[in-house]
Amino acid sequence: MNKLIRYLVKTISETNSQFTELELKKMEYGLVCLFDEVTKIIPYYIIFYLFSLQQYYIVVFVFFCPIRLFSGGFHAETYWGCFFISFVTFCVIIIIGKYMTINIITSILILIISVLLIYFFSPVDNINKRIKSKERRKKLKYFSVVTTSLLSGMCYIIPNKFFTTAVLAIFIAVMMMMMGYISNNND
Asked: Is the pLDDT confidence value at 187 over 60?
């Protein structure tokens, strides 16, 4: 698939000479990332649909992914490593969220800790895409805190059967961020 993306970017560069080499590299990286995500999202949905868990999957997706988008986190070294780690993570959140209940006090504590960890440790650099600008780092931290805070509040207005799943999705997204932070500092 990377060959197809390279071919597509090469074709774009030949027909539109206005793009710089850096812009073409960014375009290629963005298309690879988009393809990688789409090729995970769809199979996950199909698998969870087969087990009648697609609603839980959507809740995990909505509460997990926006945090990861701004805060960063742990990244596997290969596509398949990422595919399976993400799938297992989603399975754990869904299974625990469906069959266990978190009470209000515990959820408030978990969510406050999550927001504080986001505040102190986000954003986490991606090995393939370091955050070079202090201004960008500051914006990502702000978006991470605001997003996590808003999602935390949303946990209390969604249908009750998804409450634990949503809280766990936020908490696990933050734990994945911490894993990335620790991993980056050990390198």
From this structure: no
Residues 6+ positions from 91 with CB-CB distance below 8 Å: none
CA 88 to chain centre: 14
- Of the candidates 95, 85, 84, the residue with the CA atom closest to the CA atom of residue 48: 95
53 within 8 A of 94, measured Cβ to Cβ: yes
- What span, in angstroms and rounded, lies between the C-alpha atoms of 93 and 109? 18
Q: Read off the pTM.
A: 0.84
Q: Quickly list DSSP for 66-84.
A: HHHHHH-----SSHHHHHH
Residues 140-163 have pLDDT tens digits of 899 999 999 999 999 999 999 999
Phi/psi at 130 (5° precision): -70, 150
User: In this predicted structure, which of 28-37, 125-134, 157-166 has the lowest mean pLDDT?
Assistant: 125-134
